[in-house]
């Protein structure tokens, strides 16, 4: 089949051809970028935190009438209250492990600073930004972290200090990405680091494989895996505990926690959000991302459907308009399959032309989005897959009207002029 | 004439039910999606204090060392140090001026039935209420003297008053905050500027219901309350943020006219120069931004919302292109009818008007259906946990806007097909018919 008569026919329908091609181009541009955004969000959500997330929950509570000062007596009183809570939680049946903690990955509260290899370096001149987690010797077990070098804290390593006390722990465990950044050529375990511009050294005693920072916002994206764990119980008039339960016992333990803690000391605030499973913490952290991905997905599907419907509509019209010509072609010996191929090829040309324009639009839109939002450059295969998808969509959409065209009987040619 | 065109349009719809339905639904989907996102965008980027925002200005200074700047891209620090805030407040160079920070408070109801709970509180200096025109239901705000004397007084929000005191006049009663008693001196009417411009960078939510309690800055600090956000820019004692190199206060001033603005600008500039001379600052950069420019420059509206709006309008564009195509197909199929009408004396303008009326009718029906989609979309948004969710309602303005956009979209979509219809030459059509 030669293309020449087809192009001649299309010339008579310039407006329709341009409209279909334009619609395909716009659809390709938007769907490619939307799918790319969805993919980026999903990838963000799916990255593991480094924790064993099942059977884990966190308690946030605040004491009423507790000391609020920074004097040693107040701090020791607060520490005693914290230890009471911890031992009460540990004594619960089905609880495997408990640690005091200041935050968890994905939880909207964080303590950030910088770590350097020199003493007294000012805060922002540190060698590596990091987030701090404070817990006791059970932190590793409770969170289910993987120690890949060195050792865990022992009970004797754990100290306590007031919330506003600027002194730093003398032992720390850091994550592998942080260790690699600080000591690119050697083993971090046993090395000395200085936290937050402190002049007293801290020794790295262990390295964990992976531990995400709490914040999922873009400002923390440069140090997502740089975490430091200090063996310190932070004392203030509020406290947080991470609890690991025996498999499958999470809900029961979470339900029993408030009454257990009220029994230890009724003068405290525990509200609806105080006892939260890690699953909920994760869901809340990523809710906006998932919502956006779902919305984009729905819009993409509707867009593809609208475009397909548009192709069906216009092609049906063309088939109706060329009813007689089709009859003449059939009478002159064209087979049904020739008519079918004619419309399919015609659609392929229009969709192909639109898709080429669409590729340029897609790349342009990606550049525009990169300049306005925090987005990466879209890899070329997105555009190529998008191109294949819209061309296939065109072929599928054109099939029904093309089939109807191929069923036009040759006898139509003999009817009224 | 219009009645006749509408009658013709209805007849043509009846002939091509599927095609018509397709056009209406497509247009309605586009309208629904764009109106939903536009409503949210307008809500989030609205003016929090329409009658006052032109007079309110946000003050920024730069106490950061030159070699370790606040931001590499040259942004000014978001917040102010205590020292600078107090120096500027006590200079009284603006009509009103107030420094503020946000704090987390633990509220302990006096009745034993209610458990203690957490809420957000504002710590601010005396001009806060008069400058932001916060309306009082009972009582009033505190004076500068109350603040200086660290008086234990508090102003509470309407919803807290309803919750704790059943909406009665609670002025004079006491409220236990963070284990200390504060005397209530004022109860606000409902007041929650959207977005909450003054809490930007102070750690509170940008949208949603307002803070529960308002406390004098000095009194709150004396009672041991800490700001939610604070940032240190140099090593130093961090225990007392009043004396440490820490930024933690938001500073707003009210300047009634352009002369006052330029006077304050030069005052600020000379203040910064003076601080450089004293060695406290290394750079004399200053910032004085009007409320709306400040919100715009800080991009308060979440990226997701802006992206969704863009997506929805691109979607509307594709729906329109689709409608143009389908309308074109429909009208070219009716060239015979057009030929007959032209031969019977209808002018080109009449044909054009007829097809535009048809497009407009599709727009109105599509707009009506689109309104349903938009209401559904907003309902979906209200079910979301976002802090602005409860505000997502369609107001009268947006209601009219929906129909205007739908009508416009369909008329624009109708121009090309109507033009093609009106240039049909009658003779060949009549011959072939």
From TrEMBL, chain A:
Domain of life, source organism: Bacteria
Membrane topology: Multi-pass membrane protein
Domain ABC3 transporter permease C-terminal: start-end pairs: 298-410
Record key words, sorted: Cell membrane, Membrane, Transmembrane, Transmembrane helix
One Pfam match: MacB_PCD
Ranges that cross the membrane: 20-40, 292-319, 348-369, 381-400
Entry protein name: ABC transporter permease
Start and end residues of each MacB-like periplasmic core domain: 26-249
InterPro entries the record matches: ABC3_permease_C, MacB_PCD, Macrolide_Exporter_MacB
Subcellular location: Cell membrane
Family (UniProt): Belongs to the ABC-4 integral membrane protein family.
UniProtKB/TrEMBL annotation, chain B:
Domain MacB-like periplasmic core: 20-265
Membrane topology value: Multi-pass membrane protein
Gene: ybjZ
Domain of life (superkingdom): Bacteria
Protein name stated in the entry: ABC transporter ATP-binding protein
Sequence intervals crossing the membrane: 21-44, 310-329, 350-376, 396-419
Domain ABC3 transporter permease C-terminal: 311-422
Assigned keywords, A-Z: ATP-binding, Cell membrane, Membrane, Nucleotide-binding, Transmembrane, Transmembrane helix
């Amino acid at each position: 089949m030669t293309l020449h008569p087809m192009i001649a026919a299309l010339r008579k329908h310039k407006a329709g051809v341009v409209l279909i091609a334009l619609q395909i181009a716009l659809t390709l541009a938007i769907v490619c970028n939307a799918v790319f955004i969805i993919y980026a969000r999903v990838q963000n959500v799916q990255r593991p935190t480094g924790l064993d997330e099942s059977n884990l929950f966190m308690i946030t509570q605040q004491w009423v009438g507790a000391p609020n000062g920074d004097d040693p007596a107040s701090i020791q009183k607060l520490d005693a209250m914290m230890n009471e809570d911890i031992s009460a939680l540990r004594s619960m049946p089905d609880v495997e492990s408990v640690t005091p903690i200041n935050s968890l990955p994905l939880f909207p509260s964080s303590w950030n600073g910088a770590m350097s290899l020199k003493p007294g370096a000012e805060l922002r001149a540190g060698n590596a930004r990091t987030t701090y987690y404070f817990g006791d010797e059970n932190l590793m077990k409770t969170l289910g972290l993987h120690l890949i070098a060195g050792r865990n804290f022992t009970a004797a390593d754990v100290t306590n200090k007031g919330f506003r006390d600027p002194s730093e722990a003398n032992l720390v465990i850091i994550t592998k990405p942080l260790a690699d950044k600080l000591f690119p050529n050697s083993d971090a375990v046993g090395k000395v680091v200085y936290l937050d511009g402190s002049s007293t050294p801290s020794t790295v005693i262990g390295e964990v494989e992976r531990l995400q920072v709490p914040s999922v916002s873009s400002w923390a994206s440069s140090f997502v895996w740089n975490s430091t764990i200090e063996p310190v119980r932070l004392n203030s008039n509020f406290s947080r505990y991470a609890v690991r339960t025996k498999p499958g016992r999470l809900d029961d333990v979470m339900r029993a926690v408030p009454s257990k803690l009220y029994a230890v000391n009724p003068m405290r605030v525990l509200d609806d959000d105080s006892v939260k499973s890690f699953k909920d913490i994760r869901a809340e952290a990523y809710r906006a991302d998932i919502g956006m991905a779902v919305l984009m997905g729905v819009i993409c599907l509707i867009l593809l459907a609208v475009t397909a419907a548009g192709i069906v509509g216009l092609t049906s019209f063309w088939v109706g308009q060329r009813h007689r010509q089709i009859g003449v072609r059939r009478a002159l010996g064209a087979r049904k399959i020739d008519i079918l191929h004619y419309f399919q090829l015609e659609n392929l040309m229009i969709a192909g032309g639109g898709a080429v324009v669409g590729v340029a639009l897609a790349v342009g839109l990606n550049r525009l989005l990169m300049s306005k939002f925090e987005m990466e450059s879209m890899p070329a295969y997105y555009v190529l897959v998008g191109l294949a998808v819209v061309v296939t969509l065109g072929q599928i959409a054109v099939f029904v009207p093309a089939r109807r065209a191929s069923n036009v009987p040759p006898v139509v040619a003999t009817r009224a002029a | 004439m219009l009645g006749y065109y509408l009658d013709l349009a209805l007849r043509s719809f009846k002939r091509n039910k599927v095609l018509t339905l397709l056009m209406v639904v497509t247009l309605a989907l586009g309208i629904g999606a764009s109106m939903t996102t536009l409503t949210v965008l307008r809500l989030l980027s609205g003016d929090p204090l329409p009658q006052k925002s032109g007079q309110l200005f946000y003050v920024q200074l730069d106490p950061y060392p030159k070699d370790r700047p606040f931001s590499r891209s040259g942004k000014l620090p978001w917040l102010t140090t205590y020292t600078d805030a107090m120096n500027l407040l006590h200079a009284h160079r603006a009509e009103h001026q107030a420094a503020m920070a946000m704090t987390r408070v633990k509220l302990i109801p006096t009745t034993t039935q209610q458990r203690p709970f957490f809420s957000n509180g504002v710590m601010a200096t005396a001009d806060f209420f008069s400058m932001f025109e916060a309306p009082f239901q009972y009582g009033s705000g505190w004076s500068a003297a109350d603040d200086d004397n660290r008086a234990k007084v508090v102003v509470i929000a309407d919803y807290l008053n309803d919750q704790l005191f059943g909406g009665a006049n609670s002025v004079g009663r006491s409220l236990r905050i963070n284990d200390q008693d504060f005397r209530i001196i004022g109860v606000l009417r409902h007041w929650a500027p959207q977005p909450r411009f003054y809490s930007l960078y102070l750690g509170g939510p940008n949208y949603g219901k307002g803070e529960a309690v308002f406390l004098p800055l000095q009194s709150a600090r004396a009672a041991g309350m800490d700001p939610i956000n604070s940032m240190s820019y140099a090593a130093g004692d961090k225990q007392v943020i009043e004396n440490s190199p820490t930024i933690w206060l938001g500073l707003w001033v009210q300047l009634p006219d352009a002369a006052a603005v330029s006077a304050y600008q030069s005052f600020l500039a000379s203040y910064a120069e003076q601080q450089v001379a004293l060695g406290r600052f290394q750079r004399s950069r200053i910032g004085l931004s009007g409320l709306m420019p400040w919100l715009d420059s800080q991009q308060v509206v979440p990226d997701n919302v802006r992206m969704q709006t863009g997506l929805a309008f691109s979607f509307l564009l594709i729906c329109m292109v689709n409608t143009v195509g389908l309308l074109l197909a429909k009208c070219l199929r009716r060239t015979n009818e057009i030929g007959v009408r032209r031969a019977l004396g209808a002018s080109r303008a009449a044909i054009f008007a007829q097809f535009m009326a048809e497009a407009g009718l599709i727009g109105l029906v599509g707009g009506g259906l689109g309104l349903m989609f938009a209401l559904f979309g907003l309902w979906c948004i209200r079910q979301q946990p976002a802090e602005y969710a409860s505000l997502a309602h369609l107001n009268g303005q947006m209601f009219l806007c929906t129909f205007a956009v739908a009508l416009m979209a369909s008329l624009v979509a109708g121009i090309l097909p109507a033009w093609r219809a009106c240039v049909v030459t009658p003779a060949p059509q009549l011959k072939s018919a």
